[in-house]
Amino acid sequence: xxxxxxxxxxxxxxxxxxxxxxxxxxxxxxxxxxxxxxxxxxxxxxxxxxxxxxxxxxxxxxxxxxxxxxxxxxxx
Length: 76
Prior knowledge:
Helix content is 28%, strand content 39%. The chain is an alpha+beta fold. The protein has one domain (2-73): Lrp/AsnC effector binding domain/regulation of amino acid metabolism (RAM) domain (Alpha-Beta Plaits), CATH 3.30.70.920. A four-stranded antiparallel beta sheet has the order 2-3-1-4.
């Protein structure tokens, strides 16, 4: 299994709606509102790197109110 951590930036006032939607996506293990440059951190689990990237590029990034993401793939 491949674990990825996705930093999500939302439009002003869009954190709660984006969090609700992202937590229901297949492959999303956890999602939390965080303080800092990004608004939400999402843990994604996939069978391989391609599946994890697909989840981010086709599911997470299409959520209304999400304006930017940055993905980190765990190496361990």
